[in-house]
Structures are given as structure tokens and as C-alpha cells.
From TrEMBL:
Metal-binding as UniProt keyword: no
Family matches, as SMART domains: HATPase_c, HisKA, PAS
The keyword NAD belongs to this UniProt entry's keyword annotation: no
Compartments, as annotated in UniProt: Cell membrane
Keywords of the record: ATP-binding, Kinase, Nucleotide-binding, Phosphoprotein, Transferase, Two-component regulatory system
Residue intervals of the Histidine kinase domain: 142-367
Protein name: histidine kinase
Classification lineage: Bacteria, Bacillati, Actinomycetota, Actinomycetes, Propionibacteriales
Enzyme Commission code: 2.7.13.3
Top-tier EC class: transferase
CDD domains (alphabetical): HATPase, HisKA, PAS
Protein species of origin: Nocardioides kribbensis
Listed GO MF terms: ATP binding
Pfam families for the chain: HATPase_c, HisKA, PAS_4
Catalytic activity: ATP + protein L-histidine = ADP + protein N-phospho-L-histidine
């Protein structure tokens, strides 16, 4: 029996009716010319009753006046433009509103321009997401309280004991308390890093205001100076005087000053950890093709090219860090990456074994003088 291709028009009608989403086809005047069976489940309208009706019948009354202009912006102006998925409000036959994900596509039939709208009710999905967010927030609050509170208490009492005189705390006990304090601080940093990663997945936790990177650099370098000196390193900054290379008094970005400070703190901490005594760490910030490039360079151990793409993965530790037992959980650079992406920036890494590493954070920015 000879195979025969399916009737194309019958196939397309079958696909149209079998879609799990509501589909309406709208003419140039904004009237519905086709509607599939799923419109009954999504909108509560019989598909045949929708034919000839203005598409605004599916739009909440509060939005109907402005809708023709929005519709015209899609279909007019010298040809349709793809808009992809939109999340908008829609209305059922009984007047109840619901959140809908809508995809629009321009089509043509017998020379007549049409718009095909695919509509998906996302009420259940958003409710599930909201419940998931609520549970997540509760879990983070519990973790924060149940882990950070006792660790903070342990550290506090350990510090008090270490402050006692030799007659009350002997040398052996003092060594053991120092170990307790060191490990408690390590665990507290790990808990804080995990909580940071959880919160950074949501950009609502990021502030957006003008930030002067000159001040961020100055504060971070001051904070890292003691640790660098303790390892016998030279730590310097091109912004030590608080002046940008072009003479501007500020290098401005829009973002969260605390989080950007955290980026630089983590980069400096890594540079200090992986640079041998006698080495140098340099912090630089300067305009670069419309961005601001915030760079940390060191004369440390450097990395092989195959390692570079993995250093921002969560929990990744380089073979050298594992071999040399360098402290860390492999979360610092992942936090840096999350913060930079939340600011619309990107990271570049230039590294060579035995020579050193330069990590550059590029942020959308403008350079303005301070009044």
C-alpha cells in the first residue's frame, strides 16, 4: 500500500485543536476569527461564541482601554515583530482575572495579516512558586538562626576565655581554645557563604543605587592590608589617592555597595591566599569601552588554562588548593560570579602558572565627576 502524505490543512486543524493551550487568531481589526477548543477550559468561553468578538473580551476591563494601542504596536509599523512570551492578566467569562503567559506570532492567510495568540493559564504554577519561595525563606531563616546563633555564641565565649590571664587559662588550654575559635569562625564563614548564595539567586535582595567604586576599593584594600602584611605581601591600589586615572573624583556604577564590596573582598582574599611571601597584589579600577573594569592582580601560583572555566563553579577547589591544603570551601568565587551577574556585569580571568592571575570584573557604568 503506497504511503500518502497527510492532508496538510487537516493536520494543521488537528494540531490547532489538540494544543494544551488556548489559541485565538485575531484579524487586523482586533476581532477573533479562530479559537480552539482549549479556550473553553482557559477562558470559560465556547470557542464558537468568541468568533467575531473583539479580542478585548479576554482582557480585564481595567486594561481594555489601553489594549488596542498595545495590539497596534505589535502589528503596525511596517510589519510585525516577534515579542516572545509575555506574562499578562487575562479574564474569564465569569469576570475573574488570572495570570497568563502569552506568546504572539504574526501570520498571513490569503494575504490578510493575522495575529496568533497562544495563552497559558499560569495560576497553579505561580501559586507553587510562591509556596516554594515561602518555604525557602522559612528554611533560610531557620538555618540562619539555628546555625549562626550558636556559632556566634561559641566564638564570643572563646574570645572571652582567651582574654583571661595566664593564671586562669594555661598554655595548653589556650592552644585548644585557639583551635576552637579558628574552626568556629570557619564554620560561620561557610554558613554565611551558603546563605549568600541562596539569597543571591533572587535579585530582589540587591539594592540599586549609585556606588562609587573608588570608595569600595579603598575600603576593601584597607580591610585586606593586615592579612597581606601578615603573609609578607605588598598590597597596593591605583586608586590609593581616591582619584580615577582620568582625573575624575569618582567611578560610578549602579548597584549594591555592600555586595560589590563583597566581590572585592573575596577576590583580594583569594589573591592573598595564593600568593607566596614577597609577592604583590594590585587593585585597579578604570574605564574600559563603556564599562568599569575592577581588577585584582597577583604574582601568585596562577592556574592552568583548563582550570579557569571551573573556578566559579560552586564547591570547586583547584588541585593546587587541595594539595597545599589552602583553607576554603570553594564558594567565594561562586558568590562573586552571582553578584556580578546580578549587576549585569561579566568576569574575565587571565592566569599563567608560576606568573600570577588577574581577575577583572566589568560592570556597566559611567564616569562622572563628583560635584
Amino acid at each position: 500500500m503506497e504511503d500518502r502524505p497527510p492532508d496538510e490543512s487537516a493536520l494543521m486543524r488537528g494540531v490547532f485543536e489538540a494544543s494544551p493551550d488556548a489559541i485565538v487568531v485575531i484579524d487586523a481589526d482586533g476581532r477573533i476569527v479562530r479559537a480552539n477548543a482549549q479556550c473553553s477550559a482557559v477562558f470559560g468561553h465556547d470557542p464558537d461564541d468568541l468568533l467575531g468578538e473583539p479580542v478585548e473580551i479576554l482582557v480585564p476591563p481595567r486594561l481594555r482601554e489601553a489594549h488596542p494601542a498595545r495590539r497596534g504596536a505589535f502589528t503596525g509599523g511596517g510589519g510585525a515583530r516577534a515579542m516572545g512570551l509575555l506574562q499578562l492578566a487575562a479574564v474569564r467569562a465569569d469576570g475573574t482575572e488570572f495570570p497568563a503567559e502569552i506568546s504572539l506570532a504574526a501570520v498571513s492567510h490569503d494575504g490578510e495579516p493575522l495575529t496568533c495568540a497562544t495563552v497559558r493559564d499560569v495560576t497553579a504554577r505561580l501559586a507553587l512558586q510562591q509556596e516554594s519561595d515561602r518555604v525557602r525563606e522559612e528554611l533560610l531563616a531557620t538555618v540562619s538562626h539555628e546555625l549562626r546563633t550558636p556559632l556566634t555564641s561559641i566564638i564570643g565565649y572563646t574570645e572571652l576565655l582567651l582574654d583571661l590571664g595566664e593564671s586562669q587559662v594555661g598554655p595548653a588550654a589556650r592552644r585548644m581554645l585557639a583551635i576552637v575559635e579558628r574552626n568556629a569562625n570557619r564554620e560561620l564563614r561557610l554558613v554565611n557563604d551558603l546563605l549568600d548564595l541562596a539569597f543571591l539567586d533572587d535579585r530582589e535582595h540587591m539594592d540599586a543605587e549609585p556606588v562609587d567604586l573608588v570608595e569600595v576599593v579603598r575600603a576593601a584594600v584597607d580591610g585586606a592590608r593586615v592579612g597581606a602584611r601578615g603573609r609578607g605581601l605588598e598590597l597596593s591600589s591605583t586608586l590609593a589617592a581616591g582619584v580615577a586615572p582620568d582625573g575624575a573624583r569618582a567611578l560610578l556604577v549602579t548597584g549594591d555597595e555592600q555586595r560589590l564590596g563583597q566581590v572585592l573582598d573575596n577576590l583580594l582574599s583569594n589573591a592573598v591566599k595564593f600568593t607566596a611571601p614577597g609577592g604583590r597584589v594590585l587593585v585597579d579600577c578604570a574605564p574600559r569601552e563603556g564599562d568599569l573594569a575592577l581588577s585584582v592582580s597577583d604574582t601568585g601560583t596562577g592556574m592552568e588554562a583548563v582550570e579557569v572555566p571551573r573556578i566559579f563553579d560552586r564547591l570547586y577547589r583547584s588541585p593546587r588548593a587541595v594539595r597545599d591544603q589552602v583553607p576554603g570551601a570553594g564558594l567565594g568565587l561562586s558568590i562573586v560570579d552571582s553578584i556580578v551577574r546580578a549587576h549585569g556585569g561579566r568576569i574575565e580571568v587571565d592566569s599563567e602558572p608560576g606568573v600570577g592571575t588577574t581577575v577583572s570584573v566589568l560592570l556597566p557604568a559611567r564616569v562622572e565627576p563628583v560635584a
